[in-house]
Each structure stands twice: as structure tokens, then as C-alpha cells.
């Protein structure tokens, strides 16, 4: 009997030793590693706008928080239709096709900004004050998202973006109602949050494609000095540290596997008083927006990494131009730091997917902003239903330039055609389809990024905020788009494949209201002998064709550059042949 028992126990031991290791991410020194011990650079995208709407994402910045957006919708249509709208919003905004696409573009991780109200009731709505009512909706959505991530071998990082009560003075970020006790003013809100994380950790403890728990997004709160509205100057941050310790303890009661990501005060930039570490599997998550992409901008986080032997993760960044994206990601990866961008889709150009504005949307905006009459419920419902359809990926506008800037351009200085650009006699090439590539490789513009958090740097990037997210200024017109605000020295490159013989001329479609510009044209590096004068047309959209004689283009690839020796004109297209 003893022999049998010995053999049985020995077999169990051998089996456990030979069992495949789980591929949990974990902190190891300065790095995040997988189950095999390989360093992992997280390249992620945040799903902003899905579970939590912020007004600016949909031109509703004047409304702000999600609960106020919901109230504004309910003011026009019925409560029942508003509930249906939000249920359909959750169904349409993020689906398996979105995760499949992000994986194909190169992302290996997803950051899920969660709203607590999909998982539990608010403190004031609990039927029994000290208890927690769990809502299946949020957990079911997370389960589905995790399944889609697993199918693509993509890590899912859970991020509590809107905590009970709201964790900051920037009300939109956490959907905070300032008339109710905040997260920091209510122990009940904090306890509910800790209970929610314990519940989530218990549910996902054995899921290896859960990348970790980002337990509280962007605290911005003055603890010692209430005048420190953003929490950027706090010296001790004692309540935040205590919460992070408490939530870690609750998670570790049920889950010893997953990383816990720490965000400091001041929008995840103030870590005074947060350390020393209290757990071996922590990662410091800082956020970065609108400042220069130089080593000095992240040096304080590198110093914390060194001092406390903790990995870094740029847990949120974006909302800028392609040039800024490329520089920021290159800065991170050069320093061994992973990143998660904000966000995958919204109205606008500076993310991979653009949600198209539904027809009649201006009617809603005018009414909600007090500038117009109230639409009828039928009209409003038609607009809102189109908005729901426009959320779907197949109805989004894909910005390939953004994805190219975030992945290929990090390590490549090659310019690629924006489209196929096969040309013959008579082909008209839109001017906005200049090459994909870095600044000074595919184009040169004097203003390529926004440094809105850096005093004295009042730049914008694409001033027209349409079509592309490069620094070139593009705006819509009645027949498409054109390039405007062309300044001295700026240039655009077009890689074309010529399929026809005998192309000995170009025609530039230009307009100039009051100024006379001059341009240089070069083909395959050879500049034409004489600059071309751009006539004044009397209006910035009064287009004329300027013919230019050129050496005959050879069949195959040709590279054409249009350079403004003197700016002040607009450019719409390039026609091949005279």
C-alpha cells in the first residue's frame, strides 16, 4: 500500500513539473516578461468611448460627462428608446472584427476603460447600503472581449476609468457628478471599488491573456491642498497610496498571478509618496500628452524605475499628430517601455478609425448647445440610429496613415505611396494623397504636432483636422479635400507608377486669394530649371490649372516633389499630361 501511495504521489509530482506553464505577464526587474521569461513590449490600444463616453469624442465637449449626454438624449426621445440606444451602442461600438483588425495592424494588447455602472450599482442605488449588487452586463461584455483577445493572442488589460463617485476633478474622464460625494470623499465608494476589483480578479485569476489590472485611472485630486485642483503638486498622496495597497491586498486574496498597474496623482504623473513597493508584481503606469518627445520628458519615470526596480508602461497617450506618435513610441521603445494609445475610434482623424458624423447631427448639436430648436423625437431617433450604425468598423473611415506612423515608421525612413498611384496620360492625382512616411521623408511641414501642455509651443499639426493626421494642413471642400496654409519651404512627395509613355507635362490645380506663390518641381531628385509662378485667382477655392513642362516620365516608379519656394496658395490636384 505504501509503495502504491509513493508511486501515486511521485506521478503527481512529475505531472506537475511537466505541466505547461501559464503565460501570465509579470514584472521582473525593469521589464514585463511572459511565462517563458521573454521581455514583452506591450503595444496597445485603449477602447475609449465604448463603455464610457467623453463628450469631446463626439463633438459634445460642451456637455461633457456621459450621464449628461444620456440626459440630453432622453430629453428628446423616450426613456425606453434611450435605454435601447445605449444597449445598441455597447453592441455596435466594439466587436470581434475590431479586435481582429487591431491584431492585424500590429497591436498585441488592448486596454479596456471600464465604467463601474456596468458591473455594479452606485452606492446610493444599493437596496442594502453595505452590500454590492453585481450586474451581469459588464462581466459578460468583458468575457466576450477576452474571448476575442485570446483568439488573436492579444493581452487584455482591465482599466477602471470611471470609479464609483469619480476619482478626479476632470469630470468627463470618470463620468463624475459633482453634486454627489466623490470617490475620495466617500469610504463607501472606495469599498465598493475594492470589492469590484476582488470580484474581477476572482473571475479572471486563471486567465493568462488578462495582461493585468489598471486599478484606478488618472486620479486628479488635491488631498492636502484642495486648491491643487489637478493633484499635480501633492507631496504625500497618502489616500491614493492607501487605496492602492488595500486594493492590491483584496486582489491577492484571490489572484496571485496578474500584474497590478499603478497610476499616480496628477493624471498618472505625480508619484510622490506612492513608493516603496508593497508587492512584487507591480508596474508603474505613467501617461503622456502634448509635451516634447525627448528623454527629459520621461526621465523622472526612468529614475523611479531605477530606484524602485519596477517596470514602466506608458498606459495612455495619443490625441496628436502622426509625427508626435512616431516620436513618442520610438522614445518609449528605445527605453524598453511598452505603451497603450488613446483611442481606437471617435469623431476626428487622430486615431485608426473615424466615426462618421450622421446626417442631421448638427441639429442635435445646435439644440443641445442652445443655438437651435428642439428636433422632433422622430427626427432625433433617425439621427441617433444612423450614429449607431456609423459606430461599426465597416462604416468607419480607416486612417492607414495613423497605423503606419505607429508601427512601420518607428523603424523605417522609407516613403510609401498613399494609394496605388498608377498614372497614365489624363490621370488626376489628389494632392492630399502624398506619400506615407515621416516628416522630411514623405513631406515637410513647418508645423507637425500639437504641444498643448508645453508653454510657448503653440503649434497645431493639421490645421484643417480632416482626411489625414500628418502635419500637412488639409481641409474639405465641395468636391473633396485640398491642401491649404502652404508656407515657404514646405513640400510634398508623390511616388507614382507610370504605365503610359509620352507624359511630358503636369497640371497643378491651384488657388490663391491674394498672394502669388512660387514652386519648384523635382522628379527623381532632379529639380526643374525654373520655378513656377502660381497666379492669384481671387479666391482660395477659385481653381485654375498651371501647366508645367517636364522631361518625359519613364515607365515604372517615379518620385515627384512639389516644393513651395514661396507659399500662400492652395493645392488640390496634380494632372498628368498637358
TrEMBL record:
A GO molecular-function annotation: beta-glucosidase activity
GO BP of this protein: glucan catabolic process
Keyword Methyltransferase: no
Start and end residues of each CBM6 domain: 442-577
Keywords, ordered alphabetically: Glycosidase, Hydrolase, Signal
CC per GO annotation: cell surface; extracellular region
Annotated family: Belongs to the glycosyl hydrolase 5 (cellulase A) family.
Xref: SUPFAM superfamilies: (Trans)glycosidases (SSF51445), Galactose-binding domain-like (SSF49785)
Protein name (database record): CBM6 domain-containing protein
CDD domains: CBM6_cellulase-like
Amino acid at each position: 500500500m505504501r509503495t502504491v501511495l509513493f508511486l501515486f504521489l511521485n506521478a503527481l509530482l512529475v505531472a506537475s513539473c511537466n505541466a505547461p506553464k501559464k503565460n501570465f505577464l509579470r514584472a521582473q526587474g525593469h521589464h514585463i516578461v511572459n511565462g517563458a521569461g521573454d521581455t514583452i513590449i506591450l503595444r496597445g490600444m485603449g477602447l475609449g468611448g465604448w463603455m464610457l463616453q467623453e463628450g469631446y469624442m463626439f463633438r459634445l465637449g460642451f456637455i461633457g460627462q456621459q450621464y449628461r449626454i444620456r440626459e440630453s438624449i432622453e430629453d428628446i426621445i423616450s426613456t425606453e428608446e434611450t435605454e435601447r440606444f445605449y444597449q445598441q451602442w455597447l453592441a455596435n461600438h466594439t466587436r470581434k472584427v475590431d479586435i481582429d483588425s487591431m491584431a492585424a495592424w500590429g497591436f498585441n494588447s488592448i486596454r479596456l476603460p471600464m465604467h463601474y455602472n456596468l458591473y455594479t450599482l452606485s452606492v446610493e442605488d444599493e437596496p442594502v447600503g453595505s452590500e454590492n449588487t453585481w450586474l451581469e452586463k459588464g462581466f459578460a461584455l468583458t468575457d466576450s472581449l477576452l474571448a476575442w483577445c485570446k483568439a488573436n493572442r492579444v493581452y487584455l488589460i482591465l482599466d477602471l476609468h470611471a470609479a464609483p463617485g469619480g476619482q478626479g476633478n476632470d469630470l468627463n474622464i470618470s463620468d463624475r457628478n459633482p453634486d454627489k460625494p466623490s470617490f475620495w470623499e466617500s469610504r463607501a465608494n472606495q469599498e465598493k471599488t475594492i470589492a469590484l476589483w476582488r470580484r474581477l480578479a476572482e473571475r479572471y485569476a486563471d486567465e493568462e491573456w488578462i495582461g493585468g489590472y489598471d486599478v484606478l485611472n488618472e486620479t486628479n485630486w488635491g488631498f492636502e491642498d484642495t486648491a491643487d485642483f489637478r493633484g499635480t503638486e501633492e507631496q504625500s498622496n497618502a489616500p491614493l497610496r492607501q487605496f492602492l495597497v488595500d486594493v492590491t491586498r483584496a486582489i491577492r486574496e484571490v489572484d496571485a498571478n496578474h500584474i497590478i498597474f499603478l497610476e499616480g496623482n496628477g493624471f498618472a504623473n505625480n508619484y510622490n509618496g506612492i513608493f516603496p513597493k508593497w508587492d512584487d508584481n507591480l508596474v508603474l503606469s505613467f501617461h503622456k500628452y502634448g509635451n516634447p518627445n525627448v528623454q527629459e520628458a520621461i526621465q523622472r519615470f526612468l529614475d523611479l524605475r531605477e530606484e524602485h526596480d519596477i517596470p514602466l508602461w506608458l498606459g495612455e497617450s495619443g490625441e496628436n499628430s502622426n509625427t508626435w506618435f512616431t516620436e513618442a513610441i520610438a522614445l518609449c521603445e528605445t527605453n524598453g517601455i511598452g505603451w497603450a494609445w488613446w483611442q481606437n475610434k471617435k469623431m476626428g482623424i487622430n486615431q485608426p478609425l473615424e466615426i462618421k458624423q450622421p446626417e442631421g447631427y448638427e441639429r442635435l448639436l445646435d439644440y443641445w448647445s442652445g443655438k437651435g430648436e428642439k428636433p422632433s423625437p422622430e427626427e432625433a431617433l433617425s439621427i441617433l440610429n444612423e450614429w449607431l450604425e456609423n459606430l461599426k468598423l465597416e462604416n468607419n473611415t480607416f486612417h492607414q496613415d495613423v497605423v503606419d506612423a505607429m508601427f512601420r515608421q518607428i523603424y523605417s525612413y522609407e516613403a510609401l505611396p498613399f494609394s496605388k498611384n498608377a498614372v497614365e496620360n489624363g490621370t488626376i492625382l489628389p494632392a492630399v494623397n502624398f506619400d506615407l512616411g515621416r516628416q522630411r521623408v514623405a513631406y515637410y511641414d513647418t508645423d507637425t504636432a500639437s504641444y498643448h501642455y508645453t508653454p510657448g509651443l503653440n503649434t497645431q499639426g493639421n490645421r484643417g483636422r480632416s482626411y489625414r493626421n500628418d502635419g500637412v494642413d488639409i481641409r474639405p471642400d465641395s468636391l473633396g479635400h485640398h491642401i491649404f496654409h502652404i508656407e515657404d519651404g514646405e513640400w510634398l512627395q508623390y511616388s507614382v507608377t507610370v504605365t503610359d509613355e509620352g507624359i511630358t507635362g503636369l497640371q497643378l490645380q491651384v488657388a490663391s486669394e491674394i498672394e502669388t506663390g512660387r514652386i519648384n518641381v523635382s522628379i527623381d531628385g532632379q529639380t526643374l530649371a525654373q520655378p513656377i509662378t502660381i497666379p492669384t485667382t481671387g479666391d482660395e477655392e477659385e481653381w485654375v490649372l498651371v501647366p508645367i513642362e517636364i522631361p518625359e516620365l519613364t515607365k515604372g516608379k517615379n518620385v515627384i516633389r512639389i516644393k513651395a519656394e514661396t507659399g500662400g496658395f492652395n493645392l488640390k490636384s496634380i494632372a498628368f499630361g498637358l
